[in-house]
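quick one: fructose -6-phosphate bound model?
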Amino acid sequence: EKGGWSSFMRKEVAEQPEAVAKTLLGRVVDGRVVIPELESFGDEELRGIRRITLIACGTAAYAGMVAKYAIEQWARVPVEVELSHEFRYREPVLDEHTLVVSISQSGETMDTLMAVKYAREQGARTISICNTQGATIPRESDAVVYTHAGPEVAVASTKAFVAQIAALYLFGLHLARVRGTLSAEALADQLAELQAVPEKLEAVLAESEKVTQLAHWMADTRSVLFLGRHVGYPIALEGALKLKELAYIHAEGFAAGELKHGPIALIEPGQPVFVVVPSPRGSAALHPKVVSNIQEIRARGARVIAIAEEGDAAVLPFADEVLRIPLAAPLFEPLLAVVPLQIFAMELSQAKGLDVDQPRNLAKSVTVE
Ligand code: F6R
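yep, here:
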């Protein structure tokens, strides 16, 4: 039930701190990750994994793209992300040292289900990250790690996305401990960052008024671009997807580094561009590069809306609007930066008088291939 909220999406966006908190609940004990559901994967087996393939569709695939950066960094194992419907039709190289992790809110997405079945037939081991107890994909997998976001009713995925990233991060940190790729201290730091996410999400939600105003001003916009880099790149893709599906506005997300390889030709005066700015405290090279991307597009007339961490003053001279997110370690920024983009799409949809819970042509679970 909507319980006082004007839409399920509004309710589910607001439930994101809880979605992450519940997904972490009971799974961090004395500075260690405890996931009893993964018992069938012994430490020896986890040490023997040579490659991880994350398979999913849509928003769940973007959660996978975010997690790729974290799992590779922490557990030093190659991770690829593939759309389920592409994976199955290209004869992927699979064996018992390949771990295939599917990500699905509904657990019923036919493309992902068929990809999981295919992976098992080819001898891969499979784990399902799923939000729906007893769904088909978990039943077809060797193990399941549930996200505890609670039922997601609005067609567009929001709270399931942040819960998927949280579950994948737990898995990545578990793997890092078993494989000995992170010191106990580094592991504890990352877990503390993860546990701080719900509170930071609350802070982002409390600051959403500016995003709402922006959406109202931009209700006539015909095209919006999104740029990001590193973990901000999948967030740019997710921001564009949300805007397409909820507000029926043409939107595209790019890796900021790709700009000069083509997309910059799209920039003309007045073109709105959201830029997810990496933390200046992260990889030393990335922040100045994205700031210079902002200067490049601004010089060509783009209207820049930067999503930047609190205190990052470098963006101020060049951005038309700055949406702030709290300080977080770089890998945890996507969990915060996605929220203003979700709210922007939702508010713009409402400003246009559209049905934000049930966008046209879409179904909550896609049970056909
Ligand atoms: C986007 C959205 C879809 C789903 C995709 C996968 O807002 O909802 O892109 O993320 O259809 O669905 P699940 O996670 O149920 O497999």
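The first helix runs from residue 8 to 14.
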